[in-house]
Write a structure and sequence with these properties.
- The protein has 13 helices and 13 strands.
- It has helices at about 15-30, 70-80, 100-105, 110-120, 135-140, 165-175, 195-200, 215-225, 265-270, 280-285, 300-310, 315-325, 330-340, and strands at about 1-10, 30-40, 50, 65-70, 90-95, 125-130, 150, 180-185, 205-210, 235, 250-255, 275-280, 295.
- The strands form two sheets. Strands 3-2-1-4-5-6-7 form a seven-stranded parallel beta sheet, sandwiched between helices. Strands 10-9-8-11-12-13 form a six-stranded parallel beta sheet, sandwiched between helices.
- The chain is globular.
- The two termini are about 15 Å apart.
Length: about 350
């Protein structure tokens, strides 16, 4: 099978990581892949040929069995260029809750207009993949049910990848024998990181290591000073393959206010790290209270209690890993997408 993937860029972010994992499982199983992208950026490694195009360049859809787009511009490209007689199956994956995600980046009016436009251009796709059952219910309000399919994401990582000696020395020096909480995320309001900073005064001998960059960096740094925990929080900045830090965390945290899926949860599961999550519906669909420690969003005492439950809870971490193997493994991911492509 020949598959074309269309993405906005090759930047190291969630949807592009999903495409990389898709290419990995497809090529391992003998399929031929090609990735087309629009914008130059710092690129992640993808195990197939890649080619830069513009919205005006026309690829021959009928050279492929599947054309799979990710994001509003790639979806628009399919809308504009899919031929009247097309032998390729056209698939899109929606990685977010479109109206809420756009509202968090812009405003509600722009989110409404852009979201409606996005749903309109999906009309030429044969299938639209969503990441959870909750997302299925969400998109059934704006798209035909028969067009929608659910496929859980995976993560194909090498847990033997290690920090450099300098990176290792940096985090060990920061920990200095204390318990270390860890967050790997883009720093934006939707990630809810401020809650973890606010919880630190409720706990002793606990520090917070944050990997990531983004528009909330200065606000979070100001909050650290306000909470008087500047010696207990470290902003490591953007790091390639942030999952390499997981083995140094006593507890991994994902305090998000909204998520399309949560790839870093799967990375924590692979590393058997005790994990704390906000109790948003997406996370509660993916894992049970026996597998992760949940807290009530914006309840700082609830968060501190959830962290205390997770510390040293190896049974919970092992249960999380078993759930990953059963439901979110690369093999399941491949089988589910292949079934859609074959339709």
């Amino acid at each position: 099978m020949k598959i074309a993937y269309l993405v906005p860029s090759l930047i190291n972010r969630g949807p592009i990581i999903v495409v990389r994992d898709l290419v990995t499982v497809m090529t391992v199983n003998g399929h031929q892949c090609m990735v087309y992208y629009f914008d130059e950026s710092d690129a992640i490694d993808i195990s197939c040929p890649v080619k830069k195009i513009s919205i005006r360049n026309i690829i021959n859809f009928n050279d492929f069995d599947v054309v799979h787009s990710h994001g509003i511009r790639p979806d628009l490209y399919v809308f504009l260029h899919k031929p009247l007689f097309c032998t390729a199956i056209c698939v899109s994956t929606m990685h977010n809750f479109v109206f809420e995600d756009l509202a968090s980046q812009y405003n509600k009016l722009i989110a409404f207009m852009a979201g409606k436009f996005w749903m309109k251009i999906l009309g030429k796709h044969d299938k639209v993949v969503v990441l959870t059952k909750i997302a299925l219910e969400y998109y059934e309000r704006v798209l035909p049910t028969k067009k929608l399919e659910v496929v859980y994401n995976t993560r194909t990582i090498n847990i033997d990848d290690k920090l450099t000696s300098c990176e290792q020395e940096e985090i060990l020096k920061f920990k200095e024998g204390d318990l270390c909480l860890g967050i790997n995320a883009m720093l934006s309001p939707i990630k809810g990181i401020e809650q973890v900073i606010q919880s630190l005064p409720l706990m002793k001998n606990v520090k917070l290591w944050i990997v990531g960059s983004g528009k909330s960096m200065s606000a979070l740094q100001a909050l650290v000073v306000e909470c008087r925990v500047h010696s207990r929080v470290y902003f490591a900045g953007y790091k390639k393959d942030a999952f390499r830090y997981l083995e140094y965390y006593d507890v991994f945290l994902m305090p998000s206010r909204s998520e399309g899926f949560g790839l870093t949860l799967l990375e924590a599961a692979c590393h058997k790290r005790p994990t704390v999550c906000s109790d948003i519906p997406v996370f509660k669909e993916l894992f049970s209270p026996d597998e992760v420690s949940f807290f009530e969003l914006d309840n700082i005492e609830s968060l501190a209690d959830a962290i205390k439950r997770a510390i040293g809870n190896n049974a919970m971490a092992s249960a999380m890993n078993r759930k990953y193997q059963e439901c979110y493994s690369p093999e399941k991911f491949y089988e589910n997408y292949l079934a859609i492509y074959m339709k």
